[in-house]
Amino acid sequence: MIRLECIDKVYRGESFEEKALNHVSLQIKDGEYFLDDIEIHNLPITQLHNIRKRKISFVFQQFALMNHCSVYENIEVPLLAQNVKKAIRKQIIMEKLEMLNIKELKNKLPIHISGGQ
């Protein structure tokens, strides 16, 4: 079972505050889980590992970014682990930076940007 209660999430910048979640609760007892039309709940563990490696990612805001690497380099790490070619890595990274609206921060170190960025 998955259970979440009273989840709040607020994004803050220098001149804004955006409440993304306001006391959201969720409970899932059973069911099916699909990702890109793939029945995740029926996959063997080896295929689950591949799905997680290729389709699911997140960035920790604290303690998991490499402080000695730029934002660009931190995003590049999982792509290096997958042996993605340099030109394709660059394309993917620039797309993600654009999607997150942080393209101008690509050369900054994590210690030089705010947690909301």
UniProtKB/TrEMBL annotation:
Signal peptide start and end residues: none
Keyword ATP-binding: yes
Keywords of the record: ATP-binding, Nucleotide-binding, Transport
Molecular-function annotations in GO: ATP binding
Domain of life: Bacteria
Keyword Cell division (UniProt): no
Protein name as it appears in the record: Putative ABC transport system ATP-binding protein
Provenance organism: [Clostridium] polysaccharolyticum
